[in-house]
Structure formats: structure tokens, C-alpha cells
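stage 2 :: seqdesign
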């Protein structure tokens, strides 16, 4: 039986950073996000009308704190909670104080089995008082998050059989690209085969190819390390550029992406593990690509546990 709830989009990613002020300057003055009011040490940034698409938390070590997915409706949220609890997975309702900080309606968190990954589901988020105005790049949205797992097969079974993700493509047995159904984009989440649970990269989609070209020169002028690209992903038809944040975590700009219809979408492909599948322009990633960022294991703060 498929999961009885529907996603709207990947809503936000929460990152742990070692120097919040330094990271805040980077995401505003290099990436081009807009900062919004925060509290309790959390810094918020957006690339849409939502209050935030990125949250930065102070930490001793950089990495992924959680991934927030926005569901289509409040009934979807309730169905999701009931479904997840029926699997025997504990849920954690985000309390009112933290929801005021997050500017969100009812929300809950849970740990994905076979991983230390924390997902947060919500249906409502405060809208900013003004539209997002692009500054450095015409960012359209938070595109996707890719993580690494030492047991990707078990994790993928959970994501597809229990959490309503659909596989778009496989890069051999090394990377699987998934979309949160019925979101149309080729991938809103991905799982790579790695030696440990880790963050692989965070993506922001831009609306013009010139955004990628301008970013290349902006990153070079500001001595930001570029670790892959520019190139073109044959697998999703995206032009990409990967670079490192101040903690060494990998961030991506991408332009263009295959979209899937809700009904009648093509079957997932198993593509050969050739470098040109990931970059048909012939590039290769640098050694530091996707190497920094642990997945936080501790439970989220300020939550009420529901059995």
C-alpha cells in the first residue's frame, strides 16, 4: 500500500555550522539568499516567499541537522503522522515555542530507519512580507538534498515503500535520484553509497544559465573553492556548479532539470557508471567534493515525543 500523503516540495534544509556569522555572510553575499529574522541562535535565509529555505544552527561540527518537507495540505500532514506512527516509528511534535521561531504551523519530526537522518514534515509556513528579490543569482528554489549512506538499499526501500518517494534514475548502484511525489522535478532527494552517514550536497536551482557563468567568476574572485564544474548532468539535463561553503560542505547551483508528469511518467533508468553520465562535458570532481558534513544523530531540541 502506498503512503497516503502527498508532498509539495523540499521546504528547507537545516545545517550545522561552526561559525554562524561567517556562514551567514557566505549564504547572503556569495550564494545570494535573503536573511530573515531568527531567534535562539538560529539564522534563517530564503530564496522564495517562504520565511526560510535554509536554517543555520551553531555547532562544534558542520553537517546536516534535518531536512524539512512541506506537504500539500493539513490533512496530508495528519495522514502522514498516522501512517508513520503505524510503521512503529516514533514521531516528535515540534512544540509551540519552536514553531514560533520557525514561523510554521503544526510540524513533526522523525528519524528515518536505516539512517540517522531527521525529516520534518509541515504543511504551513509564514510567507515573507515582500517577494524574494534575486541579488547575485536568480535562485528559483531549494532544489534538492543528497545524502550518503553505507546501506543505501535498505534506506531506499524505506523511502520508496514507506515515504512516497519515486525513483527517477539510478547511477549504477552508486547514486539514486528520487523525487518526493508528486513534485515534478527529476530529484528533490538523493542517496549516494558512502562509507558513513553524511551530507553529500545541497542544491539551489537558478533560472538562467548566465547565473552559473556569473557565479563561476564571483566564486573565483572571492576565493571560494570550486570542486566540480561547470558541467552538464546527462542524467537530469542540468547544468551545474559545485563549490564549498566556509565549513567545507558542498553547495550546488544548477540550471534546468527534467520534469515528470504525475501520471504516465517514464520508468527509472539504470545508467552505466561512466563519468560522462554525471558530466557530459568531461569534467571530474575534485577530491574535496562532497566530503564534509556529518548527519546529526541527536534528537532535535524543543520537541514533544508522541508514541
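stage 2 :: out
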Amino acid at each position: 500500500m502506498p503512503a497516503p500523503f502527498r508532498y509539495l516540495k523540499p521546504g528547507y534544509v537545516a545545517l550545522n555550522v561552526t561559525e554562524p556569522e561567517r556562514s551567514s555572510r557566505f549564504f547572503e553575499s556569495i550564494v545570494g539568499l535573503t536573511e530573515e529574522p531568527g531567534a535562539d541562535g538560529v539564522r534563517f535565509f530564503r530564496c522564495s516567499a517562504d520565511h526560510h529555505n535554509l536554517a543555520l544552527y551553531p555547532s562544534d561540527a558542520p553537517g546536516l541537522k534535518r531536512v524539512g518537507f512541506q506537504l500539500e495540505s493539513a490533512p496530508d500532514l495528519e495522514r502522514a503522522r498516522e501512517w508513520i506512527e503505524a510503521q512503529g516509528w516514533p514521531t516528535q511534535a515540534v512544540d509551540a515555542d519552536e514553531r514560533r521561531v520557525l514561523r510554521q504551523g503544526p510540524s513533526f519530526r522523525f528519524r528515518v530507519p536505516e539512517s540517522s537522518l531527521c525529516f520534518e514534515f509541515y504543511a504551513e509556513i509564514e510567507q515573507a512580507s515582500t517577494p524574494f528579490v534575486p541579488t547575485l543569482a536568480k535562485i528559483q528554489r531549494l532544489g534538492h538534498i543528497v545524502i550518503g549512506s553505507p546501506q543505501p538499499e535498505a534506506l531506499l526501500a524505506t523511502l520508496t515503500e514507506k515515504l512516497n518517494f519515486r525513483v527517477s534514475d539510478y547511477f549504477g548502484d552508486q547514486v539514486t535520484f528520487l523525487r518526493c511525489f508528486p513534485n515534478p522535478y527529476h530529484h528533490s532527494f538523493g542517496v549516494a553509497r558512502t562509507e558513513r552517514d553524511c551530507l553529500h550536497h545541497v542544491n539551489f536551482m537558478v533560472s538562467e544559465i548566465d547565473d552559473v557563468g556569473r557565479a563561476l567568476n564571483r566564486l573565483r574572485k572571492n576565493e571560494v573553492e570550486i570542486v566540480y564544474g561547470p558541467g552538464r548532468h546527462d542524467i537530469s539535463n542540468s547544468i551545474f556548479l559545485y563549490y564549498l561553503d566556509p565549513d567545507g560542505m558542498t553547495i550546488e547551483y544548477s540550471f534546468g532539470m527534467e520534469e515528470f508528469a504525475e501520471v504516465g511518467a517514464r520508468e527509472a533508468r539504470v545508467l552505466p557508471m561512466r563519468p560522462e553520465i554525471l558530466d557530459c562535458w568531461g569534467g571530474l570532481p575534485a577530491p574535496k567534493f562532497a566530503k564534509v558534513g556529518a548527519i546529526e544523530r541527536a534528537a532535535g531540541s524543543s520537541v514533544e515525543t508522541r508514541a
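stage 3 :: structure notes
- The longest strand covers residues 7-17.
- The chain has two domains: 7-127, 139-294.
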